[in-house]
Amino acid sequence: MIVVTDQTLYTYNAKTYDTWRDATRYPKFGWFGYDVHYGNPLKLLWAPENAELIDAPAVIAEIPAFVDFFVTETERVVIANGYASNLNIHFANMRNDPAWAFNRGIVVPAFKAALDARFPPQI
Q: Are 63 and 49 in contact (CB under 8 A)?
């Protein structure tokens, strides 16, 4: 979720991103060549399930608590420090990004459903 937060801020909050980057120095998920290419952060959530390194149903049982933590920390760090203006816009940007369509396995869809339940999308 650090990667998805960082990439959401990079993409949708250009005015505050340099300050965020200076404060956090989070590593990037992607590769370099003639241009910078960032990977889809949801693949990081799916990878352990895909490699059968986790008990996916056990992880899914922990997702509601994790989503509560994610939302609380996003408000505490991202919103309170002015990197994004409010949670509605920040999570809408995250959800509306084309990368959000990634939906492999059962953990990623469960995470998205829990985020929607905890923080309903604005219509």
A: no
Distance CA 44, CA 55 (A): 16
Closest CA to 123 of 83, 96, 102: 96
R_g over Cα of the chain = 15
Structure tokens at 93: 């940007």
Tell me how far apart the alpha carbons of residues 57 and 9 are, in angstroms, rounded to a whole number.
31
Closest CA to 82 of 2, 23, 4: 23
Q: The pTM is what?
A: 0.87
CA triplet 102, 103, 107: central angle to 5 degrees? 125
For range 35-61, the mean pLDDT: 90
Q: Closest by alpha carbon to 97, among 3, 4, 1, 2? A: 4
CA count, 13 A, side-chain hemisphere, 64: 3
